[in-house]
Amino acid sequence: MGGSSSSYSRTVYYQPPQVRTQIVDLQTQIQIQKRAQQEQLQANQRQIEQRNREIAEINRINIENERQLQERRRQMEERRKQIEENNRQKKILQQILYQEEERKQKLKLNQDNLIDKVYWDDIVGLDAVKKVLRDDIEHKRYQNLHAFGPIGNGKKLISKALTTMEKIQYVSINSSEIIRMNNKEQIQNIAAAFEKARKIVPSVLFINNIDQLIVDTQSLQSRMIIGEIDIQIQGIRPEISGVMVIVASNDPDKLPQSIIRRFHHHMYFGVPNDNERATFFQKFLQKQAIYFQNSEIQQLVQATAGGRYSYSDLSHITDAFFNEDRSRINIQRILEIIRSTKPTVTQYDTQKCQRFLQQYGQLAN
């Protein structure tokens, strides 16, 4: 094939304008869809990232909540241990208080027996009541005694001297303590005192200031106390019980008949008379190894005249010289102390006791 050569020939198709336009539109749509897909993909990616952040935050919150929960549990455990420790300490404290209360009760019972030693000679006057008490103990009658009179005239001392000299046991009921208790405790303590006296016979049960316990005989509290004392005394048979009951009152008119009739003796403890005051001052001077002339003793007697100086008032006067050098104790110094000492007994105190004396009693001196 002379002069002929091989050549690549490309066939070109004819595309009508309309087709070309459609192709361009299709390509444009494809591009738009592709961008839309990419945007959607990016949006989805952002949502995933946001969700991951939210999950991470939730996880962080959960971890924090768990940490707080653990901390709360730890605090609750510490609180529980603290409560247990507090309860343990409370039980220990209650045990200590219980033991202390037991110790106080034992100490009080011991103190009831370890009373101050008082002898008959320590008490000036009151010869009549001394004789009555000695006779009762000698004949084992143990008859009950109501000691009444103005405060400070030997009612309590006489009961202590009785226990010292006659070697019998001593039990006391302190009215000032009883009145601070509730009704149940009052009855229990009164009954316990009588029970103790019955167990340690021969014994004296002394109730000081009984009139304080029954201020208002119409009140429930006073009626309960009166009833309990009445029952307890009624249950004591003097001839076989070995218990003597001595009550002291400053205002005997307050005592109801149910109590008055339980006593065999009603003895009036009045203020010391002239002779008794002279004896009182003489005993004081003898203890100090000081001699006063009889005229000087009479000056002291006259300075305390008037029926208003109790034995307690006289003791207050002489107690002023407790730490005094005896060289400084003279008639003038004692008179100065007397003038500065206000007597405690009033005319009314004496009068109200005199009415009771005329009806029921006898003199103790």
TrEMBL record:
Xref: InterPro entries: AAA+_ATPase, ATPase_AAA_core, MT-severing_AAA_ATPase, P-loop_NTPase
Swiss-Prot/TrEMBL keywords: Coiled coil
Record-given protein name: Putative Vacuolar protein sorting-associated protein 4
Sequence ranges assigned to domain AAA+ ATPase in this UniProt record: 141-273
Any Pfam family matching the protein: AAA
Lineage, opening ranks: Eukaryota, Metamonada, Preaxostyla, Oxymonadida, Streblomastigidae
Taxonomic superkingdom: Eukaryota
Coiled coil feature spans: 34-96
UniProt cross-references to SUPFAM superfamilies, sorted A to Z: P-loop containing nucleoside triphosphate hydrolases (SSF52540)
